[in-house]
């Protein structure tokens, strides 16, 4: 399991640890880890650290301190290190001294935009500093972003923007210290310009922003350097890995029959959209339930494709016993099945049209679990905001919806998130690590809803069912696509292979 903790929790753990360690020990640990990763990158790119050109972008806090100490280590190994000081008067003093002792040089940038205060003179000196800094970045083999870390708010300040842009355009490897500067550590939001890193070296724990888009995209690959923080049991965010999903997946025993494995009901599709029914059933058949019942107007299409389905053209209420319902994919405007399903005392997954048709108070009143699976546009409609707002603040949107509906919410998209209600089966939001943009194809969500519904019928709690389904669905999408476009039915067919991968580790 990969976990992420909020800045507040990290700060508390840091205080506890600092009280037990000698002054500066924590930063030295962080800087040693950072320097080791930088040396590894330089070794890979240039063959050695000696003679390489390293530029440190240094802000006013400890994030800059980490960069300075790491720079000192690289300088001692023969790298030419230049520290660009964005807030010269406030740069970490001991780190700066260490860098200078190791032979590193500094370039100062001063001015009202740099965080050095409104009284600082702007003039040719500031311009000369910026020009020299930009030239150093363009020639660099490695740029280390120590502008700001968990103490940051908002995007990059104006003086840092050209440097971040130059770093991105240069051929240098860009390593962010703790977080790419300009992203929000707790939410993954990017409200302004942020630095784009090839790699982020983060300390003690992942921060939520490193796992959630849009910030995640700025971080590049992420390396975690342990510094001995003692963190609480329940993280803010968790990303399941193969072994975690393997523990969740239902595997039939000798005593299993179809009812013990679970029967999932699919109330989906319409005369206009029969394909949604077929795809939801396709997902459900690969999701571990013992049987799939289909209730709706597309039974003939379903049976033609999947003869093993139990089909009924009467409403869900008369369809027979199920352990979970999936309602909504391709449902059109018929609110009847949604209301019938919500009245059933079994777990219910609501997707697509069903989200619009479901009565929020009926969802809140349910005692059995409900799993809502909107994409950003559907979530925006439910929240009464613009789609862009949901995409910019996915974590907040998922939590808000879960709170409003008293339901578990699986928010699909560039980073799929699963957030439970307050009284749900765990408070950490699950973030899916297996997503791929090849999955952004029509019908892919229908397959996911069937798959997750099947896991609900097999007895998984809503948060587990949603996150295990997203995980398998992402893996299946990757397997099916293998670098080329795929249709939703290909994804459904790749689910058993993904399942085997997970169980075999
Ligand atoms: N926690 C741990 O366990 C460990 C933490 N360690 C390290 O310490 C880092 C946290 O250090 P920190 O607390 O000094 O804050 P940091 O991020 O350097 O910001 C400093 C100042 O920047 C400013 N500022 C704000 N927004 C800004 C922006 N957008 N652009 C530019 N400037 C901005 C703002 O000051 P202002 O200018 O607003 O007065 C703020 O106070 C952490 O990320 C990790 O690297 C490791 O060494 C060891 C273990
Ligand atoms: K940073």
Automatic annotation (TrEMBL):
Its EC number is 4.2.1.136, 5.1.99.6. (6S)-NADPHX binds at residues 62-66, 149-155, 178, 276, 330, 375, 446. Pfam families: Carb_kinase (PF01256), YjeF_N (PF03853). AMP binds at residues 412-416, 445. InterPro entries: CARKD, Nnr, Ribokinase-like, YjeF_N_dom, YjeF_N_dom_sf. Residues 241-502 form the YjeF C-terminal domain. Keywords: ATP-binding, Isomerase, Lyase, Metal-binding, Multifunctional enzyme, NAD, NADP, Nucleotide-binding, Potassium. The keyword NAD applies. The keyword Hydrolase does not apply. Residues 10-235 form the YjeF N-terminal domain. Its cofactor is Mg(2+); K(+). It catalyses: (6S)-NADPHX + ADP = AMP + phosphate + NADPH + H(+); (6R)-NADHX = (6S)-NADHX; (6R)-NADPHX = (6S)-NADPHX; (6S)-NADHX + ADP = AMP + phosphate + NADH + H(+). It comes from the Bacteria. PROSITE patterns: YJEF_C_3, YJEF_N. Homotetramer. In the C-terminal section; belongs to the NnrD/CARKD family. Belongs to the NnrE/AIBP family. Catalyzes the dehydration of the S-form of NAD(P)HX at the expense of ADP, which is converted to AMP. Together with NAD(P)HX epimerase, which catalyzes the epimerization of the S- and R-forms, the enzyme allows the repair of both epimers of NAD(P)HX, a damaged form of NAD(P)H that is a result of enzymatic or heat-dependent hydration. This is Bifunctional NAD(P)H-hydrate repair enzyme.
């Amino acid at each position: 399991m990969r976990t992420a903790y909020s800045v507040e929790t990290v700060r508390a753990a840091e205080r506890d640890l600092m009280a037990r360690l000698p002054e500066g020990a924590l930063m030295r640990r962080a800087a040693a880890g950072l320097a080791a990763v930088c040396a590894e990158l330089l070794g890979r790119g240039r063959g050695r650290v000696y003679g390489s050109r390293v530029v440190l972008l240094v802000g006013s806090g400890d994030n800059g301190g980490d960069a300075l100490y790491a720079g000192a280590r690289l300088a001692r190994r023969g790298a030419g290190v230049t520290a660009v000081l964005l807030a010269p008067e406030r740069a970490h003093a001991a780190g700066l001294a260490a860098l200078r002792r190791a032979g590193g040089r500094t370039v100062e940038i001063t001015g009202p935009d740099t965080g050095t205060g409104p009284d600082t003179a702007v003039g040719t000196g500031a311009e000369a500093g910026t020009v020299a800094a930009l030239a150093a970045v363009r020639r660099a083999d490695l740029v280390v972003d120590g502008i700001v870390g968990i103490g940051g708010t908002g995007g990059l300040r104006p003086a840092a923007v050209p440097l971040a842009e130059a770093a991105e355009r240069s051929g240098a490897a860009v390593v962010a210290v703790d977080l790419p500067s300009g992203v929000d550590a707790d939410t993954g939001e990017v409200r302004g310009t942020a630095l784009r890193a090839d790699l982020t070296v983060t300390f003690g724990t992942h921060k939520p922003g490193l796992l959630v888009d849009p910030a995640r995209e700025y971080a590049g690959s992420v390396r975690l350097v342990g510094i001995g923080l003692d963190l609480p049991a329940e993280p803010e965010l968790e990303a399941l890995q193969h072994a975690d999903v393997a523990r969740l997946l239902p595997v039939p025993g000798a005593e299993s029959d179809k009812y013990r494995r679970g029967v999932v009901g699919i109330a989906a599709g319409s005369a206009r959209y029969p394909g949604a029914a077929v795809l939801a059933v396709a997902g459900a058949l690969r999701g571990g339930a013992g049987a799939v019942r289909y209730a709706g107007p597309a039974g003939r299409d379903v049976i033609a494709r999947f003869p093993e389905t139990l089909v009924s053209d009467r409403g869900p209420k008369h369809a027979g016993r199920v352990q979970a319902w999936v309602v909504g994919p391709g449902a059109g405007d018929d609110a009847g099945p949604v209301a019938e399903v919500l009245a059933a005392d079994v777990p219910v997954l609501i997707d697509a049209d069903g989200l619009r048709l479901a009565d929020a108070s009926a969802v809140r009143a349910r005692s059995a679990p409900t799993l809502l699976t909107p994409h950003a546009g559907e979530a925006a409609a439910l929240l009464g905001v613009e789609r862009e707002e949901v995409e910019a603040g996915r974590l907040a949107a998922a939590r808000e919806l879960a709170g409003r509906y008293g339901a578990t919410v699986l928010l699909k998209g560039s980073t799929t998130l699963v957030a439970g209600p307050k009284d749900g089966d765990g408070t950490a939001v699950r973030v899916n690590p297996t997503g791929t943009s090849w999955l952004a194809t029509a019908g892919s969500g229908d397959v996911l809803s069937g798959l997750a519904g099947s896991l609900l019928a097999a007895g998984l709690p809503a948060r587990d069912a949603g996150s295990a389904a997203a995980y398998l669905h992402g893996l299946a999408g990757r397997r099916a696509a293998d670098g080329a476009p795929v249709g939703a039915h290909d994804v459904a067919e790749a689910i058993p292979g993904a399942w085997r991968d997970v169980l075999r580790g």
